[in-house]
């Protein structure tokens, strides 16, 4: 019998991806306390809304106010259903709202 590794919940994968992108794109090393604070900023209306993709997914600007990241502005995607930050987008450029079907199809295009 082959044992399969238990798959991580999607919310965990989203948090991990967000932390990786925040460090890569903004130099912000997100720990669990900062992550929670960022989520609460969105939930409490302290983030600047950019646009909504679906009823569940939206983009926001987050302005960090505590050292060592005072003054850092991050562009993020938030999942309202899972209450997670999905990714940290590059600071400039358009948001590419590619849906799941388009994303899957693009994997097979040459």
Structure description:
- By secondary structure, this protein is of the alpha+beta class.
- It has one domain (10-93).
- Helices cover 35% and strands 23% of the residues.
- The chain contains 3 helices and 4 strands; from the N terminus they run ααββββα.
- A 4-stranded antiparallel sheet has the order 1-2-3-4.
- The chain is globular.
- The N and C termini lie far apart (38 Å).
List keywords for this structure.
four-stranded antiparallel β-sheet, single chain, alpha+beta, 4 strands, 110 residues, 23% strand
How many angstroms separate the termini? 38 Å
Number of helical stretches of at least 4 residues: 3
Low-pLDDT sequence parts:
none
Question: What is the spatial order of strands in the main beta sheet?
Answer: 1-2-3-4
**Class inferred from helices and paired strands:** alpha+beta
**Mean pLDDT over all positions:** 85
**Secondary-structure element series:** HHEEEEH
The portion of residues forming beta strands comes to 15-25%
Question: What is the makeup of the main sheet?
Answer: 4 strands, antiparallel
| Overall number of domains | 1
Helix content: 25-40%
Shape: globular
Number of strands: 4
**What is the alpha-carbon Rg in Å?**
15 Å
What's the short story on this structure?
This protein has one domain. Helices cover 35% and strands 23% of the residues. It has a four-stranded antiparallel sheet.
């Amino acid at each position: 019998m082959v044992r399969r590794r238990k798959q991580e919940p999607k919310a965990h994968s989203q948090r991990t991806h967000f932390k990786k992108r925040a460090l890569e794109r903004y130099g912000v090393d997100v720990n669990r306390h900062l992550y929670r604070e960022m989520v609460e900023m969105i939930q409490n209306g302290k983030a600047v809304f950019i646009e909504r993709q679906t009823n569940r997914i939206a983009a926001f600007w987050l302005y960090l106010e505590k050292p060592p990241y005072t003054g850092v502005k991050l562009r993020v995607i938030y999942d309202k259903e899972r209450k997670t930050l999905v990714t940290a987008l590059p600071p400039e450029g358009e948001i590419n709202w590619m849906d799941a079907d388009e994303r899957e199809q693009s994997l097979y295009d040459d």
